[in-house]
Amino acid sequence: MAFFLLMASCSKNDQQAQQMPPMELPVSTVVKGNGLVSKEYPASVEGVTDVEIRPQVSGYLQKIMVDEGAYVKAGQPLFKIDDRIFAEQYNTAKAAISVARANLATARIDLKRRKELVKEKIVSDIQTQQSQAAYDAAVASLNQAEASAQAARINYEFCTIKAPVSGYLGRINYRLGSLIGPTGAQPLTVLSDIHQVNVYFSMSEFDFLQFQNKYPGSTIQEKIKNSEMVGLKITDGNSYGQKGKIDAIEGQFNSNTGSVTFRAKFDNPESILRAGNTGKIVIDQNYDGVTLIPIASTMNIQDKVYVFSLDKDNKAVQKALKVAGKTGTNYMISQGIKPGETFIVSGFERLQQGMVVKPKTDKSVTQQASKSDAKSSTKS
Predict the structure, then answer these.
(1) C-alpha to C-alpha distance for 204 and 210, rounded to whole angstroms
(2) At what angle do helices 84-119 and 125-157 cross, to 10 degrees?
(3) What is the pLDDT of residues 313-350, one digit of tens each?
(4) What positions does the domain Multidrug resistance protein MdtA-like C-terminal permuted SH3 occupy (predicted)?
């Protein structure tokens, strides 16, 4: 008896379900459009010129003429080494020049006198040759003294350490009175020329192959030349105001990470970027004639994306989609649904496979999906 009652109850529920009016839901037509996807790559910033400031002579640090983080111009004095020893060495070298010049004058006089005596046959020609050799030696001694004085002068000038380029100073690693020299473990500081900056980022092998296939050219240099400008997103999430240009690619992949390093150059007229900054390189990728579905019209079930479409009888059909990427508020679809098919825009939360739907056309969705100015970001 219980069995017959249960069967009667189920039959009654099915009849009620069949008698339920179809749900009226907004529908739209799948269209093709243009997509713009922005891929992001973690990046680090370096100055075009990062110069280690090191002393070229040894001595005690006597003066620090600048502060950490200061902007300095090329040729501006930065540090002063105690120069007393080098000044005395330079003075000694200059005195040696005077001695060499006096010796040369004496040798010249002796040579001239010997030549006159040879003409009168008072002395032999050998003595004249000896005087000539002494004169030549005096000339060489003068040249040697002048070279020594020049070296002493250079060492004396090295006591004042100047900026080789314009830029910003880093941390100063020594204090007044420190004994410094060319072989020190640390530089005095690092000077960064940041009127332009190099931004380094890595790209996977797959993305690198896409990069190669995207741009014309028979060599990698030609492809770099034909590549588009790239953007930079700084740490606060805002876009940097200048566009950059890729100008170099590392010659080989990193075997540990499976990636290759790119370098992009950015102008930095307002010195917003500093060496050591981090950010993300943004590379735009345009896709023409791709199938677009609004993200809001899809559902995620166990890491898969689905959409409800309608068959010829207006019955709901749940379809699995293969998503190629995101562009604005749309998915770019490579498989699962075709342009021209009808899909349910919204209100499908209680919808089940095979249920009849009363379609209500929503043209606004089709118009939005057709727009080609949508943009999104994909992290790499």
Answers:
(1) 10
(2) 160
(3) 899 999 999 988 888 889 989 899 999 999 999 988 88
(4) 293-350
Residue 326 near residue 39, CB atoms below 8 Å: no
The tens digit of pLDDT for each residue in 290-312 reads: 899 999 999 998 889 999 999 98
pTM check: above 0.70: no
Amino acid identity of 140? A
Bridge-based pairing state of the strands 357-361 and 23-29: parallel
pLDDT tens, position by position, 29-50: 998 888 887 889 999 998 888 8
- Alpha-carbon distance 287 to 290, whole Å? 7
Tokens of 46: 């370096």
Instruction: Please give the CATH number for the structural domain made up of 23-38+287-379.
Output: 2.40.420.20
Give, in order, the Cα–Cα distances in Å from 68 to each of 31, 177, 187, 340: 59, 18, 14, 65
CB burial class (10 A; 0-12, 13-18, 19+) of residue 185? exposed
